[in-house]
């Protein structure tokens, strides 16, 4: 059976890395993935995570270790072009959707309740409740 990529949105990663109040549901959503699925995220998400690590003056080494547990997928000008053409009111979400689509992710996991309404027609969205 082929491995499926599952895109993990920035807000899920933030909950996990910073052990915020929803880190339990975030962890459960990741652990519920079939063992042959590959959790991935974009370079945009990595940049955002490290921005917050730096702004809070946290040690970067645990953050790098955490991030290394995910496949990091690249973003391209094609992603930008798709996002600009399909922006439903949240450009960052459009960009993440474009990236996930181009990498043939089977779904995207997020806490963002409006994500599915905006971009669910382009990609399967799993909203953590």
Describe this structure in words.
This protein has a single domain (5-127), classed as Rossmann fold (3-Layer(aba) Sandwich). It is built from 7 helices and 5 strands, in the order βααβααβααβαβ. It has helices at residues 10-17, 23-31, 43-55, 60-67, 77-86, 91-102, 115-119; strands at 5-8, 38-42, 71-73, 107-110, 125-127. The N and C termini lie far apart (29 Å). The model has no long low-confidence stretch (mean pLDDT 96).
SSE layout and pairing:
Layout (H helix, E strand, L loop, with lengths): L4 E4 L1 H8 L5 H9 L6 E5 H13 L4 H8 L3 E3 L3 H10 L4 H12 L4 E4 L4 H5 L5 E3 L2
Parallel strand pairs: 1-2, 1-4, 2-3, 4-5
- Give the structural class: alpha/beta
CATH topology: Rossmann fold
Number of strands: 5
Low-confidence stretches: none
Shape, per Cα inertia axes: globular
Q: How many structural domains does the protein architecture include?
A: 1
The major pleated sheet works out as: 5 strands, parallel
Name the average pLDDT: 96
In terms of quaternary structure, the protein is single chain
Hey, roughly how much beta strand do the residues contain?
5-15%
The CATH superfamily label reads 5'-nuclease
Task: Calculate the terminal CA-CA distance, rounded to whole Å.
Answer: 29 Å
- Which strand order spans the largest sheet, edge to edge or round the barrel? 3-2-1-4-5
């Amino acid at each position: 059976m082929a491995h499926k990529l599952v895109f993990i949105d920035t807000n899920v990663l933030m909950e996990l890395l910073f052990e915020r109040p929803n880190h339990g549901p975030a962890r459960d959503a990741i652990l519920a993935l079939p063992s042959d699925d590959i959790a991935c995220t974009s370079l945009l998400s990595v940049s955002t995570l490290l921005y917050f690590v730096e702004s809070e003056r946290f040690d970067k080494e645990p953050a790098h270790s955490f991030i290394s547990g995910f496949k990091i997928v690249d973003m391209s000008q094609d992603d930008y072009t798709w996002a600009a053409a399909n922006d439903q009111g949240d450009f960052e979400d459009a960009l993440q959707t474009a990236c996930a689509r181009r990498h043939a992710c089977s779904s995207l996991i997020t806490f963002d309740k409006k994500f599915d309404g905006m971009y669910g027609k382009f990609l399967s969205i799993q909203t953590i409740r």
